[in-house]
């Protein structure tokens, strides 16, 4: 893993009369934060468990993180991925030596496929978010972010915005911030139509949504928050925000022009929420996690062109 940078844009800070601090996990090994949790969980396996190999299911970023972590620890990895996963994510997962098994989203169940492999081979399941070692591994992002902010002479952020799918990354970060920066208000950000965490936070219980509307944020498409992650997020998060594909496209364009980073749609939603002023940011200091940059060229150019179609 690498210590990813925190970057700013003086132009944007002046425009919005606040300070945006971008945590660029797009520059992490494998292009997203997911390798943090994967490495932490695999590191905590016993030697006999490692010899059995590991199994994971993912649309891409977790797949790549697990495959890379397995390569680091020199163990066998099998990854269950949807056939419509971004080509770059499929290619990179295979490149790190993982055995990839494809399934159709409309008829297949990735969890059941993975469990069958575990039953047949004895391999260890590395879940994408709802497991203690995964959550704590993702939480290293939060600890790192806090340290970097304090090195800039800032005691605490006013807000932290982070993309949210199953909730593992934001849960780990929330634990870190609750301990080291307790006055920071933390918000989960999701694509419009996939706001299961936002709805669940409002209801005070896990809500399962119907996944009908299409979204380009492939990394964030999930029906309900994780059971363990929601227990944490229910206590520590201030709320949830949603953004449209168009707002996400604007954020991707802004990341390219102002921060010189390429961010995938799912990784750009927190920046989208920040740029659209969904919270009172004036004269505040806002931390924004850009969680991943694994996007196919065609999807990326389509989103950028969409952002210019004003």
Plain-language structure description:
By secondary structure, the chain is an alpha/beta fold. The protein is 46% helix and 15% strand. The chain has two domains: 6-32 and 132-308, 3-Layer(aba) Sandwich (Rossmann fold), CATH 3.40.50.1100; 34-125, Rossmann fold, CATH 3.40.50.1100. Strands 1-2-10-7-8-9 form a six-stranded mixed sheet, with helices on both faces. The chain has a four-stranded parallel sheet with strand order 5-4-3-6, sandwiched between helices. α2 packs parallel to α4 (61-73), α8 (168-180) runs parallel beside α10 (227-236) and α11 crosses α13 (297-308). The protein is globular, with a radius of gyration of 18 Å. The mean pLDDT is 94.
Summarize the biggest pleated sheet.
Answer: 6 strands, mixed
- Give the rounded overall mean pLDDT: 94
The proportion of residues forming helix, as a percent range, comes to 40-55%
Q: What is the total tally of β strands?
A: 10
- Cα separation of the termini: 39 Å
The side-by-side strand order for the widest beta sheet comes to 1-2-10-7-8-9
Q: Write the H/E string, N to C.
A: EHEHHEHEHEHEHEHEHHEHHEH
Rounded to the nearest angstrom, the radius of gyration is: 18 Å
Structural class: alpha/beta
Q: What is the overall shape?
A: globular
Low-confidence stretches: none
User: How is the CATH topology of the largest domain named?
Assistant: Rossmann fold
Compute the number of structural domains.
2
Strand content: 15-25%
The number of helical segments is: 13
User: What's the CATH C level of the largest domain?
Assistant: Alpha Beta
Architecture of the largest domain in CATH?
3-Layer(aba) Sandwich
């Amino acid at each position: 893993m690498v210590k990813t940078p925190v970057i700013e844009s003086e132009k944007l800070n002046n425009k919005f009369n606040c300070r945006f601090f971008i945590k660029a996990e797009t520059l992490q090994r494998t292009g997203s934060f997911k390798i943090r949790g994967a490495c932490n969980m695999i590191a905590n396996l016993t030697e006999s468990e490692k010899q059995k190999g590991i199994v994971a299911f993912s649309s891409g970023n977790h797949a790549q993180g697990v495959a890379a972590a397995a390569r680091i620890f020199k163990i066998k990895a099998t990854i269950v991925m949807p056939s419509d996963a971004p080509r770059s994510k499929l290619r990179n997962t295979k490149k790190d030596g993982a055995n990839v098994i494809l399934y159709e989203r409309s008829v297949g169940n990735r969890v059941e496929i993975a469990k069958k492999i575990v039953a047949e081979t004895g391999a260890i399941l590395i879940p994408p978010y709802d497991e203690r070692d995964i959550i704590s591994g993702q939480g290293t992002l939060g600890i790192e972010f806090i340290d970097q902010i304090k090195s800039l002479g800032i005691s605490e952020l006013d807000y932290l915005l982070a993309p949210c799918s199953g909730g593992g990354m934001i849960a780990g970060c929330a634990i870190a911030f609750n301990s080291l920066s307790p006055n920071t208000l933390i918000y989960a950000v999701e694509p419009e139509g996939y706001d299961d965490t936002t709805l669940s936070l409002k209801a005070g219980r896990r809500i399962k949504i119907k996944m009908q509307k299409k979204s380009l944020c492939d990394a964030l498409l999930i029906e309900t928050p994780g059971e363990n992650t929601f227990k944490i997020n229910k206590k520590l998060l201030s709320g949830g925000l949603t953004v449209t594909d168009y707002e996400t496209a604007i954020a991707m364009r802004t990341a390219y022009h102002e921060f010189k980073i390429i961010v995938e749609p799912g990784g750009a939603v927190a920046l989208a929420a920040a740029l659209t002023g969904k919270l009172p940011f004036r004269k505040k200091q806002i931390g924004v996690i850009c969680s991943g940059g694994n996007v196919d060229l065609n999807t990326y150019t389509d989103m950028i062109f969409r952002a210019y179609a004003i």
